[in-house]
Amino acid sequence: MLVSMAAVASSGGSPESEWKPMSESLKSGWSLPKAYLMAGTGFLNAESGTSKLDGYMAEAGIGLKLGKYFAVESRYMAAPSLSGDDLSGDLKAFGSGLTVYLPISHKAKAFARYDILRLTAKVEKNSVEGQIKERAQGFSVGVEGRITGKNYIRGSYQQLKGDEIEADVIEVAYLRRM
Fold this sequence. Notes:
Layout: H1 6-11, H2 15-18, H3 22-29, E1 34-48, E2 51-66, E3 70-83, E4 87-103, E5 108-125, E6 128-148, E7 151-162, E8 166-177
Antiparallel strand pairs: 1-2, 1-8, 2-3, 3-4, 4-5, 5-6, 6-7, 7-8
């Protein structure tokens, strides 16, 4: 059986009287990683040079919650029918990021997330198509709250920045912890 000696050393007691199973020590301040699934929708406003496109987007992802304060997440975002004044197009993004949580209450937390993404955009203007592929960085801030049990809801503002494309996203997502 694995034991936690940290409790023994900090309490000054003898090891024989203070030994605890490692599982009890983990429960006191640490938790094992927990996987979750995420699906969301929102509104996207993209700019490339002087051109502006906007429309609805959908997002899906998987994540791994690492204790109380951190998570890693991979996600895929698609905005299939963007439109602007004289052009139309679509935008897709795939990437991974690190999320940092700040508890507000026992049911809600604020968060900030940094992502590295691969953006692909197809734009059509006057029957001429163009394509942009680039790496981008994403930064998100928002609030996540527990609905019931393992069900959570998240609202966030995301900013995606690449060399040629910049996008702002307002999103609402549902998360299900495993």
